[in-house]
Amino acid sequence: MRTVAVVGTGLIGTSIALALRARGITPYLLDDDPEAARTAAGLGAGVAEVPRTPVDLAVLAVPPQHVATCLRRQQTRGLAHDFTDVSSVKVRPQREAAELGCDLARFVGGHPMAGRERSGPLAALPDLFHGRPWVLTPAGRAGERAVGRATELARLCGARPVVMEPAQHDRAVALVSHTPHLVASLLAGRLLDGEESQLQLAGQGLRDATRIAAGDAGLWTDILSSNAAAVVEVLTELAGELETALGALRELAEAPAARDAGGRDRLTAALARGVRGRGLIQGRAPGGLRLSGAAAGT
Fold first, then answer.
1. Could you tell me how many helices (H) and strands (E) the chain has, helices first?
2. Using CA atoms in the order 259, 263, 265, 267, what is the torsion angle rounded to 10 degrees?
3. Which among 141, 164, 187 is the end of a domain?
4. pLDDT tens digit string along 222-268?
5. How far lies 18's CA from each of 23, 116, 133, 162, 210, in Å?
6. Based on the domain organization, do 222 and 244 belong to the same domain?
7. Are residue 74 and residue 153 in the same domain, yes or no?
8. Closest Cα partner for 153 from 170, 119, 129, 121?
9. What pLDDT sits at residue 234?
10. Helices 34-42 & 11-22, crossing angle to 10 degrees?
11. What's the pLDDT at 48?
12. What is the three-class DSSP state of 111?
């Protein structure tokens, strides 16, 4: 793969372009906002212009709701021989692309599992994807060449390609990304009702728990809307567990003398479950690789 175009020069698109530049490929940068493309180019991410001939691969770094229409538009104009995207939802965009009549033999869905709470080209990093999973969800009609180029893109960016079914991917990110973001945002929103004397006591634990809530609200509305069914499943189960914890706390509040009653046991069980769940990712580097020895803090 020698030529690449990146459509959408936000955090992810510009980070991909910077990673490719470090590997000797100069991407063409396209964006509906010309200033964003020029900013990315000014960072050394590529050239803000339309290629004269089709490139090998076009990366569609646009929100989930725009993937299908962007793919249709860029295939019609002949931007590239093959296409991939980087959106964090896969079922809906691929279904919509099929409905629009896109050539899915030349398209491979993709999702690099990396990001930051900041957005825009100025937040981009050339090593954002190093060691991280890069999920590929080729449709049944995806051609071998397109799959090969999407896989090469992930590796050029320092990521670890992982092939999944679209629905499997969406269920996974609902658990490990989308629902956590929503919960962090709801928790952070409670701070708006806090008094200054309360907020000044905030420590690192609260900052860690709400860090991702600083992400772009509009983008995350699009992500959550596009993966709503999978998020509902996870959130419904979480709501049930919250209700159990709430009931236990109410029991303890109303009968504080019954410290060893069922309410205390249920609360302990909920906390212990959290300890076990946290342990499943404690020994993993960001991206899922297991750490060992000193690297895992043991």
1. 12, 7
2. -110
3. 164
4. 999 999 999 999 999 999 999 999 999 988 888 765 555 688 889 99
5. 9, 16, 18, 22, 29
6. yes
7. yes
8. 129
9. 96
10. 30
11. 97
12. strand
